Amino acid sequence: MARMSPFNSPLLLGFDRLEEVVDRLARSSTEGYPPYNVVHVADDRLRISLAVAGFAEDDLDVTVERNELHIRGRQAEDDGAVYLHRGIAARQFHRTFLLADGIDVAGARLDNGLLHIELTRPTAPEIVKTIAIESGDGAGEG
Questions:
Q1: 34-120 is a CATH 3.50.50.60 domain
Q2: Are the CB atoms for 73 and 60 separated by under 8 Å?
Q3: In sequence order, what are the beta bridge partners of 52?
Q4: Distance (Å, rounded) from C-alpha 32 to C-alpha 30?
Q5: Enclosing H/E stretch for 120
């Protein structure tokens, strides 16, 4: 049985990439580590803040690949300490955010156990383009 897609409408031309994004989101992990916030800073700016307590700058990696923001954390191995109780997680993570076209990662900073990633969305001027209509008298066909 073929899967019905809302993007099969002939009125939605060129939205195949959006359908791929929706499929990728449906398959993505729902793991909640590390917790994060997304803050609307201004009309053209967003900030993602991840709680990465215990991670140093060298333990974190932020990359952008094909409209995907990848944030990875990997802590160095234990120094041989013997824990009587270990309540602070020291695990690696990989968190991915899908970015819309035009979203740019402006920078990242680590501050008091929070990794802040600044995103910008340049505002594009509205452009109205008039398309000339040619005569259909058949001249030049042949």
A1: no
A2: yes
A3: none
A4: 6
A5: strand 114-120
The pTM assigned to this predicted structure is: 0.68
The residues that bridge with 49 in the sheet, in sequence order, are 37, 116
Element (H, E) at 80: none
Q: Half-sphere exposure of residue 52, counting CA atoms within 13 Å on the CB side?
A: 28
Choice among 10-24, 44-58, 123-137 with the minimum mean pLDDT: 10-24
Average pLDDT, the chain: 82
CA atoms of 93 and 74, how far apart (whole Å): 7
Hey, what are 23's tokens? Answer: 């499929």
The pLDDT tens digits for 90-139 are 788 999 998 888 899 999 999 999 999 999 988 878 889 999 999 887 65
Q: Which pair of tokens denotes residue 111?
A: 């501050």
Residue 89 φ then ψ, to 5°: -65, 135
Q: Which helix (H) or strand (E) holds 45?
A: strand 45-51
Q: Which residues contact 57 (CB under 8 A, 6 or more apart)?
A: 110
